Amino acid sequence: MKVAIIGGGVGGLAAATRLAIHGHRVQIFEARDDVGGLASGFEAGGAWFDGGPYIVLDRPGLEWAFEKIGLDISALRLTKVEDFYNVGSIHIYLDLQRTVEGLGDAGRAYEKFVNHMNMIRTRLEPLLRISHPNVLELARHGALSAAPFLLRSLGSVLKRSGLPRDVIDAIAIWTHVAGQTIDSAPSVMAFVPALIHCVGAFVPKNGMRAIPQLLADNARQQGVEIHCSKAIRKIVIRSSRVLAVDDIECDAVISNYNGIGTYDQLVEVRNRIRKKLRTMPLQSPGLCAYLTAKSENGPYLRFRLNRGLQLRVTSPGTVRMIMPFDRNASEEQQSAELQRMLDNPWWREGLSERDASLSRQHESGDDAADDAAWPAAASQSVDQGTVSRRRIDASRTMGQLLRDFRDSRRRLAARRSCCRFNLTT
User: Fold this and answer.
1) Which neighbouring-strand residues pair with 203?
2) What angle do CA 97, 99, 104 make, to 5 degrees?
3) In terms of Cα–Cα distance, which of 341, 330, 342, 345 is closest to 388?
4) Is residue 255 part of a domain?
5) Cβ contacts of residue 236 below 8 Å, gap of 6+?
6) What φ, ψ does residue 62 adopt, rounded to 5°?
7) Rg (CA), the chain
8) Would you say 13 and 258 are in contact if contact means Cβ atoms under 8 Å apart?
């Protein structure tokens, strides 16, 4: 069978390799000049920046996935993130006992909560390997008792935990990342502390780009043809059967492009359906500022709640600042909000020789790294808490970037989060 895959992100590369292993002829068509999708990034100021929403990885999940396509996880050179995140005075380490000790009187209740969540998570874990789990599968794996838990919200679970408000807020911080409220978020988000302490959080030594690079090399070895700078404009369908992508004949198509974009741009659908697709709201939009900095001891992730979520992601030599993006605000208002975030001293703790070298808009549903060739829109030098702003040579200004963004947002998919914290693979 001849299979065409639209999009060379992690999903497209993994699917292509799996199909090639089973004897199919596979071609990947990637619009950008390199593969990677949400796991790619860009280089600026002599530093590499991860440009997508992947922040941390689940090693056991990756090992399982890599085994399916004949890869050894050791090639990624994963490192453990020991000092994981903090929210206000609450500090979460990978080591459970260290976290418990830092929580004082709330420590034992937190430990009990983590152990209980890990017990439920362990019962449900086999279902992650099943495409369409149901009640019968719950019973078969001895997890039927977890069914009531699955029907509850995160808010309901945390209210029954007996934990103090500040600890609950620290656990529920991920709902802000996903653009949800604590009472609308699913109960399984309560597994995050268990995943952190019992499974761990990992990052590749050479950044998230190491994953698609490894997948692409392996795919080519399996006979997959990868065509970069090749944007597909149409999936040709006749009598409910796929015939081609553009003028390239194929027997089947896998779209690793976003869901709304696939049906809005590549497939013929009824006008009323297309209109509905184009009015679907995107979730968790945000602005990102990318900085070069020397990092001292401190958490990998630092959260702050101030008129919405603010997040600092610290990697060796680089820092990423993320804040909410109000799609209805003017360009000037967005720039002012970004400037206010950079003016605030909270994110500077533990950093030295800071240089906020570039900034960009990022929205969930935009394949965040697909526009990785964008030029720096503004440069800022940070010294002793003072931010001086200057323009640098750029073919598109921040205002133009924002206008382009607004023009294209209806064609983008509604993904679940601005920053996908891939703790469950």
Assistant:
1) 79
2) 100
3) 342
4) no
5) 242, 243, 244, 245, 246
6) -65, -40
7) 22
8) no
Q: Which residue has the tokens 């209806």?
A: 410
Q: How far apart are CA 398 and CA 379, in angstroms?
A: 11
Residue 138, amino acid: L
Among candidates 317, 324, 418, which has minimal Cα distance to 365? 418
Q: What is the domain range of residue 99?
A: 92-199
Q: Examine residue 22 and state whether it is found in any structural domain, yes or no.
A: no
Number of residues that this document lists for the chain: 425
Token pair belonging to 359: 């900034």
Q: pLDDT digit of tens for each residue in the chain (425 aa)?
A: 999 999 999 999 999 999 999 999 999 999 999 999 989 888 887 888 998 888 899 899 899 999 999 999 999 999 999 999 999 999 999 999 999 999 999 999 999 999 999 999 999 998 888 888 888 888 988 888 999 999 999 999 999 999 999 999 999 999 887 778 999 999 999 999 999 999 999 999 989 999 999 999 999 999 999 999 999 999 999 998 999 999 999 999 999 998 888 998 999 888 898 888 888 766 566 788 888 888 777 899 999 987 678 899 998 888 998 887 766 778 788 888 888 888 888 888 888 765 555 544 444 444 433 333 222 322 332 322 222 222 222 223 333 333 333 443 333 333 322 222 223 22
> Helix or strand or coil: residue 311?
strand
Residue 361 lies in a domain: no
Q: Tell whether 176 is covered by a domain.
A: yes
- Copy the structure tokens of residue 138: 């719950």
Kindly give, in sequence order, each residue whose CB lies less than 8 Å from that of residue 226, ignoring residues fewer than 6 positions away. 8, 27, 28, 30, 35, 216, 219, 220
Q: 243: helix, coil or strand?
A: strand
d(CA 12, CA 326) in angstroms, rounded, equals 31
Q: Say how far apart CA 144 and CA 142 lie, in whole Å.
A: 6
**By C-alpha distance, which of 29, 27, 21, 23 is closest to 3?**
27
* Residue appearing with tokens 């050479």: 206
Number of domains in the chain: 1
Strands 248-249 and 241-245: antiparallel
Residues 6+ apart with CB under 8 A from 189: 154, 172, 174, 175, 178
